Amino acid sequence: MGDGHTSPDSGYVQLLRDAGRRNEEAELLVALDPHTRQVLGCVTLAVGGTEWADIAEPHEGELRMLAVGAAARGRGAGEALVRAAMARCRELRLAGMAFSTRPAMKAAHRIYERLGFVRTPDRDWTAAPGIDLMVYSITF
């Protein structure tokens, strides 16, 4: 799980697998194949200051746990999920978004930058020993 970014024995894996809980306590956005209706990927959207937000301020939305299945990569599902989250944040009248990403997630960084997100190194943080996270943000 997590393409090697997350240890299979990590407690974080349980959170990743519990989509029902994430949908109840935050918002779960899902990308579906338009023809087969199969799930291509999903992302959790949290408002800053809530239990699911790590670094977003109360006026921001935060992406969490963005994942796209290996077979669906390159088909635009990840970008569609980020765009949907951006639209939802605007609907909620949030001023922007901020979220964490691992340094090795280069393909995701390209999507974020293409959509107007910028690196915000003064907000980078360490989630646990050896898990350094970079922050991207955008203001609407």
Summary keywords:
27% helix, 32% strand, 140 residues, Aminopeptidase, 7-stranded mixed sheet, alpha+beta
List the topology elements.
Layout: H1 11-17, H2 19-25, E1 27-32, E2 39-47, E3 60-68, H3 77-91, E4 96-101, H4 106-114, E5 118-119, E6 125-128, E7 131-139
Q: Could you give a quick summary of the protein structure above?
A:
This is GNAT family N-acetyltransferase. This protein has 140 residues and is of the alpha+beta class.
Descriptive report:
This is GNAT family N-acetyltransferase. It comes from Kitasatospora cystarginea. InterPro entries: Acyl_CoA_acyltransferase, Bact_Acetyltransf, GNAT_dom. By secondary structure, the protein is an alpha+beta fold. It has one domain: Aminopeptidase (3-Layer(aba) Sandwich), CATH 3.40.630.30. The protein is 27% helix and 32% strand. It is built from four helices and seven strands. Strands 1, 2, 3, 4, 5, 6 and 7 form a seven-stranded mixed beta sheet that branches. A hairpin with a 2-residue loop joins strand 6 and strand 7. The protein is globular, with a radius of gyration of 14 Å. The chain starts with 10 loop residues before the first helix and ends with a strand. The mean pLDDT is 90.
